[in-house]
């Protein structure tokens, strides 16, 4: 049998101090115990366990009363061990047991900790049970899905409903009832008593109860889960005798009678009293002084023995609590230990004959309290805890306080998760808890409803998990409206709350925020609370207006779904017009104009603008409003004054070109203003991308003045604003004129051609880098005028270009050589002109200049100069720096060229041979002559093989075919072989040899017809003979012209 044990032992020093503090408080309260009892009865109705909502008001009233008197305070205890949360105290008794409040005492760390929400809610069962327990005391309890059964010390079994009302009293015992077992169906109830009797009652019929007298005090009883189904009606019980008896009805007796009861001893005496037993399925768990054992009724074997922890208190001091979580998991709470036993099956190969087929895995951990009851809570454990302090009593002193029994603390319900961490701890103020011990409490539960009952001798309390309404109520009590609202919104997906309405709760939250003067937060929450309710929106907007907080809610006012009354929106505009013009502008641009009267707002704004003519914000508002109401001309006026980019949008959209025809200079100034802002932004971006000037710089694409909107507007709409009209207005501002004409030239080289002479001056003044580009691109300027301007400004490269364009190449070359002294530029100019005389002039001029000679030698590849002639013409004795390197480079270039030519020649020869071989091979292929026709007479070449004679034919390699008689005419030609039925091969060969041996062998008249007479003859003939295409390998698509045999003919499949 495998057994895993884990013992966790942690202590909290803080709890020891708190326990000592409680003791001191109890000593102070000794003399007034009777008064406390009266007070307890007086405030009993204010417990958390009250069944209706009046407990909230009662508790709040008492709490405020106690706190206002500064006599009692609520103490929150935080546990450190196992990450334990603090205890939640919910009854007036807690305040009475806490330490007195001292005004001079500093706020402790524990008091500043935020209170945690409890996991459970409580209800004290009043009704009949409160009166019954005044005369008697509870000793045992069991819960079913129909009722609660309570055993008393007088020997009664009380059947109660879930509210504590008495339904039935079963009085059969003469001593205390120690245990109660209820059958699964709720029909049978069994009780065990110290009088040694087991009594089983049937609640749904009047049959006489079954009484079993074991003559020794009994402590536990458990019924077979199938008690109501089986005739055996088995139960198991045990007590002070230490014997565990399984009682069942025998089906067949030795004498043949049915129904006689008999006992089977499952546990013999000798290991102490049987203190607890619980039956689940086939498994019976029971406890004695040695530990817990599990018996399987199916195999009739004990499958495990869980020893009591060796360092636990004596077994007779504290009751063992057993609870089955499910069919295979047993929860054990004994003294200060909690154990979880899981029953598992052995694998088939591990089963031994005569041994149990099951084993148990056990995990154990230690607690700092005594376990009075244990129950499963979802995937966690709910434990009824009893707190004790070890007090060493001095028996030799006469001080009565040393001999007094220590007062007990409140029992606690603790929720522990699977990691042995406490999730929640609630202290319960049961009646008379100060005088009870751990065995006086008991915990039982109703699994299907998660209802947990805690019983003490004088009290019965129901604990249930808190639901959504409890959670929201708890949050509202602590003014945590936002959390409550979020929880309620999330719960809408699965039905929401039964008590709270989302809108009502939201309005309560808004009211609370406004009372706390958190107007911005209240406005932020309006959207999710008010949603699309128009009436509520208007109500709260007017509420904010009355509080002069419209600026807080304006960003959240909806303008669709729902759309509010126009009065609301105009009220907001009026408020901002008097208090915040920027907010007015922002709101105007944010809201659509269809939700309010634009004319009404214009009137309001103009009234204020008359007093503040230079208020740019109001001008922006008027520009927007006039655009909304369809008056773009007025809007344009304000936009131009404000230099707003949307002025161009208005011009384009509404075609306001006539309005700006005489305002070109204003537009260009506006354009320059915008460009300065763009330049600044570009500089900032460049500086951001290149913080370190020593590193490689990242380039950005910069905008030019010609890219700005005003220039593009003028350039793209020349049909509305003529070019000459614009030029006249910009003559006084040459920089603006240059920007305009440059943009115009970029768009179309021919537009504004009459101003190209003027543009040369503008380019030379404002954009010299692009002057040469303009000179190259334009054909509309006067060369003499352009040369004069460049000469005045000494722009030599441009002068060289103009001279070249004028045809004065020699003067241009001399200008390059004389002024620029740039040999490379001179060579490039000579290359561009491609004039031999110019090259000669350059060579002649360079003979006395070593720099130019070196330049020519280094650029012989593109120069039209013979290197040998250049070298011969160099004067003797002239010192030329770098001549050796230049000559070496010339020779290297020559060798390279020779090597390249040789390689190309080899490749050419190789390719020619290969292609000639391919051509020869292709021409030697056979030809299908079925459809061949004579290219002269256009008759079929071949005849039927059955004919008496077959004419001789000649087919050239070009695939043109002829009758011999058609092709060869004249004397001296060999006679064709005689047609005597079947011609011999030898005669054919001899005839062919004779033809090829002629001094002038026959040639294809088609391929050698330079005048295309054959094609002309073919066109003139109008015969009905079908002209079939020539089969084989043919070059070209027509038969005319000379044949091109410089490559392989195209591959055409032969018809074989």
Automatic annotation (TrEMBL):
One of its GO terms (biological process) is protein targeting to vacuole. This is Vacuolar protein sorting-associated protein 41. Keywords: Metal-binding, Protein transport, Transport, Vacuole, Zinc, Zinc-finger. Residues 934-1008 form the RING-type domain. The keyword Metal-binding applies. Residues 1-12 have a biased composition (Polar residues). Residues 1-42, 1033-1056 are annotated as: Disordered. It comes from Rhizophagus irregularis. It is found in: Cytoplasmic vesicle, Clathrin-coated vesicle; Late endosome; Vacuole. Required for vacuolar assembly and vacuolar traffic. PROSITE patterns: CHCR, ZF_RING_2. One of its GO terms (cellular component) is HOPS complex. One of its GO terms (molecular function) is zinc ion binding. Belongs to the VPS41 family. Residues 33-42 have a biased composition (Acidic residues). Pfam families: Beta-prop_Vps41, TPR_Vps41, zf-RING_Vps41. CHCR repeats lie at residues 711-855. InterPro entries: Beta-prop_Vps41 (IPR057780), Clathrin_H-chain/VPS_repeat (IPR000547), TPR-like_helical_dom_sf (IPR011990), Vps41 (IPR016902), Vps41/Vps8 (IPR045111), WD40/YVTN_repeat-like_dom_sf (IPR015943), WD40_repeat_dom_sf (IPR036322), WD40_rpt (IPR001680).
